[in-house]
Amino acid sequence: DRLCGYSNSVLLKDSLMQQNHEQFDKSKVLTLLSSAEQVVRLSREYFPVGEPIPKSGAALQASGEAIFVDDIPSPINCLYGAFVYSTKPLVRIRSVEIKSKSLPGVSAFLSYKDIPEAGQNIGSRTKFGPEPLFADELTHCAGQPIAFVVADTQKIANRAADLAVVDYDVGNLEPPILSVEEAVGRSSFFEVPSFLYPKSVGDISKGMNEADHKILSAEVKLGSQYYFYMETQTALAVPDEDNCLVVYSSIQCPEYAHATIARCLGIPEHNVRVITRRVGGGFGGKAIKAMPVATACALAAYKLCRPVRIYVNRKTDMVMAGGRHPMKIEYNVGFKSNGKITALQLNILIDAGQYPDVSPNIPAYMIGALKKYDWGALHFDIKVCRTNLPSRTAMRAPGEVQGSFIAEAVIEHVASTLSMEVDFVRSINLHTHNSLNLFYESSAGELEEYTIPLIWDRLAVSSSFNQRTEVIKEFNRSNLWRKKGISRVPIVYDVPLMSTPGKVSILSDGSVVVEVGGIELGQGLWTKVKQMAAFALSSIQCGGMGDLLETVRVIQADTLSVIQGGLTAGSTKSEASCQAVRNCCKILVERLTPLRERLQAQMGSVKWETLIQQAYLQSVSLSASSLYLPDFTSMKYLNYGAAVSEVEINLLTGETTIVQSDIIYDCGQSLNPAVDLGQIEGSFVQGIGFFMLEEYPTNSDGLVVSEGTWTYKIPTLDTIPKQFNVEILNSGHHKKRVLSSKASGEPPLLLAVSVHCATRAAIREARKQLLSWSQLDQSDLTFDLEVPATVQVVKELCGPDSVEKYLQWRMAESKRACHQRDGLVHS
């Protein structure tokens, strides 16, 4: 069934939009920016789970009524904070001249010296180690917080922070490490625990010996990416009685902030309460990096005994964020003449920044996505480099997006070397179920769960891939200054399930309150949880339960109400939260069933409200808690999908237009197809940003220089594919997953590499044409296409002098024609 087949009504000419639709002259419309089709197959087996119910809170968010942290009214006597950060790496701080003292309204200027005696200078922590809240005598990277200004308004606090002058000294200090190459030269690495380090597959020497051809010492470099959430980092800390604090934080892991604040202040954790209602976009940037923001506010509120809040401005947020991990990859690959790869060996350097954060996890994530092809044998050496740059942290599909891109870069290189169609090389290297088991072991699942072969063939038909490939060839022959490319790519994405708490309470009127460890980041977690609660409670089989969904409310996360909430990340927190709630509801149903049976025996039938009223009168406990613990044997599973993208490039300007993208993604039994479709589309577009647009450079000191929308370009309306088609594949049942569902938040981002690969194909046609004009050999069309493939990059690769080359070619052709004509005349 088609959930929605629609045309986006955003028009290029607003003036053409009229109130009376019947009078609308469609002939005057130049074009639609984008149109789309969404295809799902609905199942009512677990109703209302599986229904495309609109996202909970969507109307509130659209109307501006949804309450985010910065919307909470400021308490009486509230102050505002702003960070002073270092602009230099690895320097000694001689002094900080606080010109801001002369500004009216500045209340305090806090540094590491203001940490309570019983506390610690800690701003965040992971299992790999802590990161300080403030630099002490030394600042280790540009962007590291030095101090926290507190003032009467946010504007004054920001101004005061800007006016702070830091005197630096580099005497008797080694030069900073600002690249992975420098880190290697000075053996500056973070240790990756052996249990986290991924395993090699097969015999690399044997695989190389079996190869007919080899590519040696090829190199790929990948840059960083900023989160660009709509809501920047924000927090509000309010002192409470008896040395306690209530902190409102926009964070993906309130539990972690809770413990960090208590350690920083040197107080028991029961004195701290962290509350998170919703987050205005996270993508990983509101996890570890949100902790120092909440902790700094808490420190200021604790010291000054007044509420303190902060809304970090975009510039400071971008400077301190860290972002996605940059990498340098060198590889050797062996392959047969038919395109089958027999061995892949990689040396990978990951730039982790100054503190470990979650970086030791990245090697496993990266290799997990890279293993999507059968490489024959796979061997790698991965080093997590410690540099004097802000610590990198998780960014949507951390490591996986890089791993998937590396795989495609290798495939493209092999195809170019053999002068073969790239799609053929991809197809011949797809996994069989046997090779999938070899590479992914227990995550691989049963044969019927491996849906890549089905998706691959189905997508070729639904997208008319082969027919469009031929049409594009003709287009390229007929057009000098515009070229098209098309590409089909698969993904295999390994995800782990996480332990998650839940709590369900039934109130006296029959309405239901739900709390979970998962945080609503915009991914529809609350919506799926509501559906699960309604489904699980419906098994009590009372009358009047048809609209039970409307009686369920999911409320904010509160670290003193539901503990062990963990981190909302990795794409599986929604399903884990759903299972935790399902477990709670099972407990409540078990408690209510004997009462319902007695009432039915007396009354014949019983309504939900009556049952709950009687339960209250008879003191039946109507609140249940549960900690969902995934089965060890099924903690990880694989997600599958594929995309076809077609692009058109302008050789004269370097502009790339995404003509069409078609996606088929395996969501298992979708918990909510409408929510999952939104996740698939949004993730894909964010991936387009990484592969095609977003540059996050630093200066010679490692300080971020793209610090706003003027220089940092994110996807906009005209970036979205002109035709954007998404199909959710219902892959059937799997008893070990949550109602047979699968993740949808991160894996589709990897499919955006199809746009980059299609752009490469279009550029190849442009370069082939350029070589023909110069009468040069066209057999070797290997070239490096950077990430992101910006307008400037595409223009350069297409030949900045292409017009001159064309004119020279035309003149030469004209002369040749004249000579031939003259020869005929003379003869």
Provide tags for this entry.
827 residues; globular; Aldehyde Oxidoreductase, domain 4; 20 helices; disordered N terminus
SSE blueprint and pairings:
Blueprint: E1 2-7, E2 35-39, H1 58-63, E3 79-85, E4 91-97, E5 106-110, E6 124-126, E7 129-131, E8 138-139, E9 145-151, H2 154-163, E10 165-169, H3 180-185, E11 189-190, H4 204-210, E12 213-222, E13 234-240, E14 244-249, H5 254-265, E15 272-276, H6 291-304, E16 308-311, H7 314-320, E17 327-335, E18 341-353, H8 362-370, E19 377-386, H9 400-418, H10 422-428, H11 433-440, H12 452-462, H13 465-478, E20 482-496, E21 500-506, E22 512-516, H14 525-537, E23 552-554, E24 557-558, H15 573-603, H16 608-617, E25 623-628, E26 636-650, E27 656-666, H17 673-693, E28 723-729, H18 753-773, H19 791-798, H20 802-826
Parallel strand pairs: 2-28, 3-16, 14-15, 18-19, 22-23, 27-28
Antiparallel strand pairs: 1-2, 3-9, 4-8, 4-10, 5-9, 6-7, 11-19, 12-17, 13-14, 13-16, 15-24, 17-18, 20-26, 21-22, 21-25, 26-27
Helix pairs in contact: 5-6, 8-9, 9-10, 14-15, 15-16
How would you characterize the overall build of this protein?
Among the domains are: 443-495 and 639-774 and 781-800, 2-Layer Sandwich (Aldehyde Oxidoreductase, domain 4); 500-629, Aldehyde oxidase/xanthine dehydrogenase, molybdopterin binding domain (Aldehyde Oxidoreductase, domain 4), CATH 3.30.365.10. Helix content is 31%, strand content 23%. The protein starts with a strand and ends with a helix. Residues 1-30 have low confidence and may be disordered. Belongs to the xanthine dehydrogenase family. Residues 63-172 form the Aldehyde oxidase/xanthine dehydrogenase a/b hammerhead domain.
